[in-house]
Design a protein that fits this description.
Helix content: 40-55%
Number of helices: 16
Strand content: 15-25%
Largest sheet: 8 strands, mixed
Number of domains: 2
CATH architecture of the largest domain: 3-Layer(aba) Sandwich
Bound molecules: adenosine-5'-diphosphate, magnesium ion
Structural class: alpha/beta
Distance between the termini: 25 Å
Length: 376
């Protein structure tokens, strides 16, 4: 049975673009649209993001019918607009030229009952000092989250210029964030194709090898990519560069958890305290902020975990011992850490906490994933 949708101010939106859906209503003015939305009965609204008042309209729809899916149609060059639309409450975005595949994917996801899309968590890791082990932990955490959930888990290297994630796995992905951002793709199917599938369940999305290509990435288009990933993977792990760029700021806004990677040194802990303070002043809720102690060696440090916990006003989310050989060998060879390795146990415990926080992380995904043959 086809599901009814409402198409607003998009005369070029043909019924053939959305098999499985039926254009029950076309509206032209905001008034007509809001009246129809209030009346209910549609599975999703498709609207033109290039309309002058589109953001206000989206906000009004969200206020009237918070559970109603909204699919925005935008031009490929509209990175910044797409970003604001997603922030305003637009559920999905599809780009011109419209294709049946993209439109259907967006509609499927937007019209799915609440809780079946965008259920994934975004976990961002940020180093408090150079060499704290942020990239290393991000890589291992993604591997352990995939093992724990038995589902593919995304790992995105947002250090666009000097990222080391691909290197850590000794892999050279054919597609990079530059390709995804260039395609302007907000579409989950393409992300699934572009992300490099590693045998350990990790799906890698990394920056291009050349600096010039990395610099050319439109940061505004990376956030919609991360947003789309939430509908695709139970967990997306982000390795952030140690800079507070607009991209990092946007990623932090999206992240359900920000994990600061701390070493038991005075400068590292001081930076952690400053970061927590600054982020909380920016309005990031305290419960999203965690820290992990990395490279821990008993009785080697002047500081103890307990004093750092006191200083930062929260318990450590994890304490990962120092074991240089283990962290290296495992990623290079593509094999997980040995079962009884203490580094692995510590990272497994962190993965457990993350996945345990996600209500449906272990549940099989349904909807469009199944349709694409991706559910497992
Ligand atoms: N738990 C650990 N034990 C031993 N060495 C580690 C550990 N975590 C990271 N390292 C090493 O520390 C160095 C810096 O790690 P990296 O992940 O690149 O840090 P960052 O991304 O914070 O700059 C690397 O050589 C890495 O292998
Ligand atoms: Mg790094």
């Amino acid at each position: 049975m086809s599901r009814p949708i409402l198409v607003h101010n998009l005369p070029d939106f043909e019924p053939t673009l959305a098999p499985g859906f039926r254009i029950a209503l076309r509206t032209r003015t905001t008034q007509e649209l809001l009246a129809a939305v209030t009346a209910g009965g549609v599975a999703a609204v498709v609207l033109n993001l290039n309309d002058p008042h589109t953001l206000t309209t989206i906000t009004q729809i969200v206020e009237t019918q918070p559970a109603l899916g909204i699919v925005g149609v935008a031009d490929r060059s509209d990175g910044a607009l797409v970003l604001t639309a997603l922030r305003a409450g637009c559920t999905e975005v599809t780009l011109r030229p419209l294709s049946q595949e993209d439109v259907c994917t967006a509609l499927e996801r937007a019209s799915a009952p609440a809780g079946t899309t965008a259920g994934g968590q975004t976990v961002a890791l940020f180093g408090t000092i150079g060499g704290a082990g942020t990239t290393t932990l991000a890589c291992h955490l993604a591997v352990e989250c995939a093992a724990t959930t038995q589902q593919p888990v995304a790992l995105v290297d947002l250090d666009l210029e000097f990222g080391g994630v691909a290197g850590a796995f000794d892999s050279a992905p054919n597609f990079t964030l530059a390709d995804v951002a260039r395609a302007g793709v907000i579409d989950a199917a393409l992300i699934e194709r572009a992300a490099l599938a590693l045998p350990n369940g990790v799906r890698l999305l990394t920056p291009p090898p050349e600096l010039d290509d990395a610099r050319a990435i439109d940061a505004a288009l990376v956030l919609p990519v991360l947003h789309a990933m939430r509908g695709l993977y139970p967990v997306s792990v982000l390795d952030l560069p140690r800079q507070l760029t607009p991209l990092v700021g946007a990623a932090l806004e999206l992240a359900d958890k920000l994990i600061l990677v701390v070493q038991l040194t005075v400068p590292s802990v001081r930076n952690a305290r400053r970061l927590f303070g600054a982020l909380q002043r920016e309005g990031v809720p305290r419960e999203r902020l965690e820290f992990v102690v990395n490279r821990y060696r008993r009785s080697l440090h002047l500081l103890t975990v307990a004093t750092v916990e006191q200083e930062l006003g929260r318990p450590a989310f994890g304490v990962v011992p120092s074991d240089f050989r283990a962290v290296h060998q495992a990623l290079d060879t593509g094999r997980p850490l040995a079962d009884r390795n203490p580094v692995r146990a510590a990272i497994q415990a962190i993965a457990q906490k993350i996945v345990g926080d996600a209500p449906d992380a272990a549940a099989p995904r349904n909807g469009w994933r199944a349709k694409l043959g991706l559910a497992r």
